[in-house]
Amino acid sequence: MNLNYKRYRLEVSPPKQAVNHLSERLTRFDEKYNKAVDAGHCVCVTDNAMGNLAFQGHELIQELKLPVRFGQVMIHLNTFHTLSDLHWILDSCGELGIKEILVVSGDGSVRLPKLKPSEIDCDSASVTSVELLGYIRKIYGSAFILGAAFNQYEPEAHEILKFRRKIEAGAEFIVTQPMVGRNELIEKVMSKTKIPFIIEAWMSPNIKLLSDCIGYSIASEDTFDPMACLESLRNAYPANGFYLALLDFKTQFNNFQIKA
Fold it and tell me: What pLDDT sits at residue 215?
């Protein structure tokens, strides 16, 4: 079966492990997950986002008995794991039928272990998403559909080189960093490759948070409208799919047209 890259991918973060009112958080995760899947979208489950230790997507899917349908679940996987935990995650995803994995380097923290090059038989100074992609492809073959990130805010030559290495390592699709308008570098790379690009849209009204991550102001805090931005991106990139980061399921979910 071919993956539908034009399907909306909706970001859903698992509860942190050290959190109050865990039962309520689990119920909220369950509701968001099922709401997205029932509408025909793909649920994208983050992996210890911002370096905060959280439950893994596959264990929540198992515990809450959530449905896994082809093309409707994407698990993020970063380099901040022990080797045994890495295989636990991948083996569990395989058993559950989860095919789509977005491989990223990750944020990390002092509380999280990091894969060592010697553990995955590579001679690099550290393990990045490139090495992790190559390792998964080597050990698991074609069991998973692997994706990687593209950071259009990095220097062009540096990011294009990384992009090529990720494709060579086994990435089959790309997710951009959040966009608030057209981007020349993204368009340049897309025009020269057949690799599917999924455009990430920033759905939080707190645009300052994104600006702080990038290092400069990306849009006016007073006038930024996430829904208007998404509509603009859809008009600019009608052939692409979209990843919706920090989507508000209560106020925004029903306000965009389904393209599943």
Answer: 87
Q: What is the pLDDT of residues 114-154, one digit of tens each?
A: 999 999 999 999 999 999 999 999 999 999 999 999 999 99
Beta bridge partners of 202: 245
Average predicted confidence (pLDDT) for the chain: 94
Residue reference for tokens 């494709």: 167
- Tell me how far apart the alpha carbons of residues 40 and 239 are, in angstroms, rounded to a whole number: 18
DSSP class of 179 = B
Alpha-carbon distance of 35 to 159, in angstroms, equals 35
Q: Supply the CATH classification number for the domain 9-255.
A: 3.20.20.220
| Torsion sign over Cα 181, 186, 188, 193 | negative
Identify the DSSP state of 49. G
Produce one character per residue of 36-58: b if its CB has 16 or more CB atoms within 10 Å, e if not: bbeeebbbbbbbbbeebebbbbb
Q: Is 256 helix (H, G, I), strand (E, B) or coil?
A: coil
Helix, strand or coil, per DSSP, at residue 22 = helix
The residues with which 145 forms a beta bridge, in sequence order, are 100
Give buried/exposed letters for 101-110 (b at 16+ CB in 10 A, else e): bbbbbbeeee
CA angle 132, 33, 31 (to 5 degrees): 145
Closest by CA position to 230, among listed 259, 209, 192, 196: 259
Let me know: does 201 contact 246? Beta carbons within 8 Å. no
Q: Are 112 and 54 in contact (CB under 8 A)?
A: no
For the chain, how far is it from start to end, CA to CA, in angstroms?
A: 15
Contact (Cβ atoms closer than 8 angstroms) between residue 67 and residue 37:
yes
- pLDDT given at position 7: 93
**DSSP secondary structure letter of residue 16:** B
DSSP designation for 51: G
pTM above 0.90, yes or no: yes
